[in-house]
Each structure stands twice: as C-alpha cells, then as structure tokens.
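Reading a protein record of the kind used here takes little practice once its layout is understood. The fold follows as a row of integers, each naming the local backbone shape at the matching residue. With these conventions in mind, the following record can be read line by line:

_____
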Amino acid sequence: MGELSFIGLPEETHHCTSYRDGDWIVWRCPQCERYERRYNGRTGEMKIARGGSEARHTGMSSQVQNMQALTKIQSLN
C-alpha cells in the first residue's frame, strides 16, 4: 500500500496511529497525550476524547500509515 496523502490539510494537522481493540479501531495522537478516537466497525459508533487538544487530527488504520505518523513526529523532537 502506498503513501496516502490528503491535499489541503493544514500544516499543523496531527497524524494519529491506530490499533484494533475487539470490534473497535482506536486512533491515538503521538503528540496529544490524551487524544483518542474510537470507531466500532460492527455498530458504526464513534467516540472521541479530545483530551483538551484543539489540533486537527487525521489517521488511517494500516501499518504503513502508523509508520508515517511516527516518522512525522520524530522530526519534531
């Protein structure tokens, strides 16, 4: 799978990593300690805990996307 890009995202957009938790796909932001978004593929339910973050977040649920997100934040440290 190639790199997925979204044209027009603000420069300050945070890229989340993801993992599966039963029926849920969970995205977490490596830059925002308490940001978490959960999607239940079986029921269609979405839950978002912003954790005080005002940043825009994006993320996919693949290993490639997870590595891209982690690589992006390495340059910030």
Remarks:
- Helices lie at 63-74.
- The two ends are 27 Å apart (CA to CA).
